[in-house]
Amino acid sequence: MFGAQSRCAMALVAAAPLALHTGCSSNDALQTMPGSLDHFGDVLVMNREDGTNFRTLVIAGYSPSSCVFDNPGTSCFVSHACPNSMGASAGTVTITGKTAVMLAPASDQSYATQFLTDSLADAGQTIQVVASGAEVPPHRGTVTMPAAVQVTTPNGAQPIIIDRSRDLPVAWAASTASSMSAFLGVYESDGTVQGNVACSFDDTSGSGNIPAALLQTLPATTDGSSAFLTVGRYNWSSTQVGDWTISFGGASYVNESVTLE
Length: 261
What we know:
The chain has 261 residues and is mainly β. It has one domain (11-260). The chain is built from 1 helix and 18 strands. Strands 3, 4, 5, 8, 12, 14, 15, 17 and 18 form a 9-stranded mixed β-sheet that branches. A hairpin with a 3-residue loop joins strand 6 and strand 7. The chain starts with 10 loop residues before the first strand and ends with a strand.
């Protein structure tokens, strides 16, 4: 089997063999994302459906500044990680599903990704998020965990080799979540990001393509570099507090190592 949104800047979380993108604020996913947004935040709970080392990631991030993307305003684009200096504190962030997880900001105002050994929320379960507030005002919200994602193309039963000169088809068992997302990232041996491409799709369609024109912006996986394709199903909700737009996400995802030629 095979084996990770909205309008905002992109934050990258890399943990081999995992490559995830988070972020954005609104339910219409990447399809209407502008070139930059200021004062945004994201809290995301992701259940991995085929993992052996962990089941769930809990991610939070807040930024008072903007990030810029290539090809803004489209459903597929080349993304760039936001500078680490852009963090802002929302105080203690508590995420509650089956149980509660509390995230506290570090000295640089960033929030460390939490890796859980069990699922924080089942499909259809409501996730509650409450932030005590600091530079980011206090806020709260809820989001529903979507159905487990089942990817049918590519088929990870054998090594996945991606020809960058052709569109990459992606297919899944359709559902009715806010969006589907395919994220392809290439990393150097030390984990440094060499490049990544993200696409957002209508979950009900059951299929989509990552364009060859964007695949060709990524390097081939040579000289020890590695690549991961992550396909995720997302539900999103959002709230506005002052001039901050905060999104809450629940996601199901699968992840697979790939080779880029």
